[in-house]
Amino acid sequence: MTNATASPAGAAPIIRMEGVNKWYGQFQVLTGIDLAVQAGERIVVCGPSGSGKSTLIRCINRLETVQQGRIEVDGIELTAGGRNVDKVRAEVGMVFQQFNLFPHLTILQNCMLAPMRSRGMQKAEAEEVAMKYLRRVRIPEQAHKYPSQLSGGQQQRVAIARALCMTPKIMLFDEPTSALDPEMVKEVLDTMIGLAEDGMTMLCVTHEMGFARSVADRVIFMADGRIVEQAPPAQFFAHPQHEKTRTFLGQILSSQHA
Amino acid sequence: MRTAPDILISLAAFGAAEVRRHGQLYFTHLARLAGADGVEVRGELLRDAPVELPALRASGCVRVYSSPEGLWRADGRLDSAALQRALAAATQLGASRLKMSIGGFGAHADPGLGELQARLAGDAVELVIENDQTLRAGTIPALQRFFAAADAAGLALPMTFDMGNWHYLGECPQQAAALFAPRVGYVHCKGVQRRPDKWVAVPLADSAAPWRAVLRALPAGVPWAIEYPLAGEDLQAVTQHEIERLRAVAAEQQEAP
Questions:
Q1: What is the pLDDT of residue B254?
Q2: What is the dihedral of CA A61, A67, A69, A75, to 10 degrees?
Q3: d(Cα B125, Cα B141) in Å, to the nearest integer?
Q4: Chain A partners of B197 at a C-beta cutoff of 8 Å?
Q5: CA B243 to CA B225: how far, in whole Å?
Q6: Residue B172 carries which DSSP code?
Q7: What is the pLDDT of residues A184-200, one digit of tens each?
């Protein structure tokens, strides 16, 4: 394993995972995870299906609990009996493979809901914030439509805008493009690139290796519940250290004709 | 002067994930609003056929049903059950045409063309044979062998000419157009580009292939279907633009001497 806790010197990490182990029954899905993420860092997590990468990022906002180890997000201890879950979730936005928009609410209402309920915003302010982020993802004209009237790419951009409405410090993406047709992938990746350029701390589970090359500060490769290897993208793609990484990259890059 | 073709939309053009998410009826309405003359319903994209087929029929827009199954099984035997399923779906849809590929035709000495002829004889649905992207059912020689055998059996079947699929198999679409033009009854319009490891379908305007020459070589008046990706912020506007583009091409060809 290469340098699993690497982080720029001198700054406290915004996410810290130490000795994290997690089981589903008898099956250990995460093993000995040590990870430190600096504020503003862009991390891509990749690996074969079942390697634990989605579980890893879902632990960061406690969508998954862990049995052993310590997780700290923005200085808040997340593994302290679940007391701080709401505090952490207020700082961490998440975008899923399926967009999970409320079908009976308009796009605008979807974006206003959490700020009004969780942040106590008034309707006018929530609407202003929602429109700001819908403009940011370049679909303000869709505000009064319902999710079923939008394409998958547009719905995923709404999901990103909805997460941004909570002004999170960290954004987690769990395979955000894998439910999209190829023609829709670029519009979502472009939105994510925009966020990265603005300095958002991002952890993204994806097989989009072009995105990893051009946007990530660090690429983490997981297999069998462990962080097998991590490195800056230039090093990761040019000189993968582990045989499992080389096999994975060989398969994924040939399928993506990179 | 050439007759103007009807412009259809193969619903696969909207993307498999999108069509499965919204359903084919949604995109049928969109295609109609965009000015299409009809749609081709895709069997592989149906989510709940008993519910969707009657609703699609009620739209009055379905012209073609595309079955994802081959007419012949891998062992070369006629797949009567697949044909039966496809004809039934086409009938339920009110489609006048059923599009299928020949699948494993040629792998068995007796392809059962007589049985096929008998099955089609009493059916109002017209079978149109497509060149697909497989070696067995998409190359020029494979289609020539099939049509020769069908002709010899007295079975005159029209062809769906997919102008993009030839590229996937290294065939020349212009040569194919010259050979098959007399029997072409339906055209799939599809641009292509070569990526490092594969061909991909693209709008005609972005195509690396001589699609105008191919269209010119094919019979006038047969329906043209858009089967390249349709995507954009305003999908109806994108679709309308592509329909108008094809109508303009058809008009140019009508005016050509």
A1: 78
A2: 30
A3: 27
A4: 254, 257
A5: 9
A6: -
A7: 999 999 999 999 999 99
How many Å lie between the alpha carbon of B18 and the closest alpha carbon of chain A?
6
- Cβ of residue B195 closer than 8 Å to a chain A Cβ: yes
What is the pTM for the complete model shown?
0.88
Residue A135, token pair as written in the block: 């403009």
Residues lower than pLDDT 50 in chain B: none
User: Does the distance separating the beta carbons of A148 and B22 come in below 8 Å?
Assistant: yes
Q: How far apart are CA B130 and CA A145, in angstroms?
A: 39
Cβ–Cβ below 8 Å for A181 and B18: yes
Please state the three-class secondary structure of chain A as a single string.
Answer: CCCCCCCCCCCCCCEEEEEEEEEECCEEEEEEEEEEECCCCEEEEECCCCCCHHHHHHHHCCCCCCCEEEEEECCEECCCCCCCHHHHHHHEEEECCCCCCCCCCCHHHHHHHHHHHHCCCCHHHHHHHHHHHHHHCCCHHHCCCCHHHCCHHHHHHHHHHHHHCCCCCEEEEECCCCCCCHHHHHHHHHHHHHHHHCCCEEEEECCCHHHHHHHCCEEEEEECCEEEEEECHHHHHHCCCCHHHHHHHHHHHHHCCC
pLDDT, residue A256, reads 65
pLDDT > 70? residue A257? no
With beta carbons less than 8 A apart as the criterion, state whether B70 and B137 touch: yes
Could you tell me which chain A residue has the CA closest to the CA of B195?
Answer: A257
pLDDT in tens, B141-162: 999 999 999 999 999 999 999 9
Looking at residue B1, its pLDDT comes to 62
- Rounded to a whole number of angstroms, the distance from the CA of B255 to the nearest CA of chain A is 35
Q: What is the DSSP letter of B87?
A: H
Q: Find, among A166, A160, A157, the residue nearest to A114 by Cα.
A: A166
Q: Report the candidate in A188, A192, A187 with the shortest Cα–Cα distance to residue A203.
A: A192
| Contact yes or no for A181 and B233 at CB 8 A | no
Give me the pLDDT at residue B198, please: 86
Q: What is the pLDDT of residue B257?
A: 66
8 Å CB contact of A153 and B231: yes
User: For the residues A13-25, what does the mean pLDDT come to?
Assistant: 96
The complex scores an ipTM of: 0.83
CB contact under 8 A, B231 and A181: yes
Distance CA A139, CA A159 (A): 12
